[in-house]
């Protein structure tokens, strides 16, 4: 995924399915370097990680 698409997903009122290494995640915050983001697993709000945005994958739109 690129930074612009990540921004669109974060700003959207719709819910998008995004994964990191095959695991469903939420994007919490995009970093100013435009390369990394803080994410957490959908099933665990407590465990957050900083990841490279290029490793995020948009799976499909959830209605």
Question: Features of this protein?
Answer:
5-stranded antiparallel β-sheet, mainly beta, SH3 type barrels, Small, acid-soluble spore protein H, 63 residues, single chain, sporulation, 1 helix, SASP_SspH, globular
Provide an overview of this structure.
With 63 residues, the protein is mainly beta. The chain has one domain: SH3 type barrels. The protein is 14% helix and 51% strand. The protein has 1 helix and 5 strands. It has a 5-stranded antiparallel sheet. The longest helix is centred in the N-terminal third of the chain and has 9 residues. The radius of gyration is 11 Å and the shape is globular. The mean pLDDT is 91.
Give the SSE string.
HEEEEE
Domain module tally: 1
Number of continuous helical runs: 1
> Helix- and strand-based class?
mainly beta
CATH-assigned fold name: SH3 type barrels
Top CATH class? Mainly Beta
CATH architecture assignment: Roll
Poorly predicted runs of 5 or more residues: none
Largest sheet features: 5 strands, antiparallel
Portion of residues in beta strands equals over 45%
Largest sheet, spatial ordering of strands: 4-3-2-1-5
Number of strands: 5
In round numbers, the mean pLDDT is 91
What does the radius of gyration come to?
A: 11 Å
Distance between the termini: 21 Å
* Global morphology: globular
Helix content: 10-25%
